[in-house]
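This section describes the prediction task in plain terms. A model, or a person checking by hand, is given the sequence of a single protein chain and must write out its three-dimensional structure as a string of tokens. No templates, partner chains or ligands are provided. The sample shown here is typical of the held-out split.
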Amino acid sequence: MPIQEPPLLGIEVVHLPVVVHVIHTGEEVGVGANLSKERILRQIEIINEDFRRKEKTRGYNEHPDGGDAKIEFVLAKSNPDSEPIDGINRINMSIKEINDLGYNQNHYAQFAYWDPSKYINIWTTPLPLDTECLVLGSATGPKTDLPGTQLLATPKQGDAEGILINWMHFGESNIVCHARYGRTLTHEMGHFLGLLHTWGGHDCELNDYCDDTPAVDEIVFGRNSFEGCSGETIMIGNYMNYSDDDVMNIFTKEQIQRIYYVLDNHIGRNSLMTSPALQL
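The expected answer:
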């Protein structure tokens, strides 16, 4: 993939607006699935540390193929009615009856779904405690002409777009699980912006279509590197693996170029960069 500069010539850092729809069952704020504002703010810090490769954070690396994506995520400053908001939309699901559409974006969009050309919709989902470390998150991907797009969960006509995160895996926590440092959102945002798992379609020749992620044709998880295709050591720290949160710390330059291509060429993702939700 050819080298690309960040989208919107002259802008040093791209800002993308997010709304966090906190779906809960009536708990007080800060209890259970009704996540505290502090935890939500920390999650936004974490994803920005990761995308910006920020020094003195878990998101920093000195790998020669690592890069600063120059993308920052901002909690929306206004709602669809142009009213000021802190970017957090709390919904008590116990007082709203909806159809059971399964665990997917269409189901949770029945509670709240804001214009996806202006907001990245993130739903924190109130799953039971026994889903900890079993159900993490999912994201819809952008439909473009990039190779490998068919491996993403691209929405059909009329489907909702956005990211689901099990509330237990949103932000930092002390749960006994490999995914407790907020990297589930970093991973799923990668998919939302067009990145594939490093193993792609389990094909050594093509895998994720990024030459600077060592080729691997099997699912990567855990915390220990191993030999991938052609005996090359895999990149265990890549955010697009299922690696443990505390070892993840890298997007490569070609992964970032792929994201730029999506921001430049996908109408919905492109419009996020100039969303009115970034301003009061």
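For orientation: Residues 264 and 270 are 6 Å apart (CA to CA).
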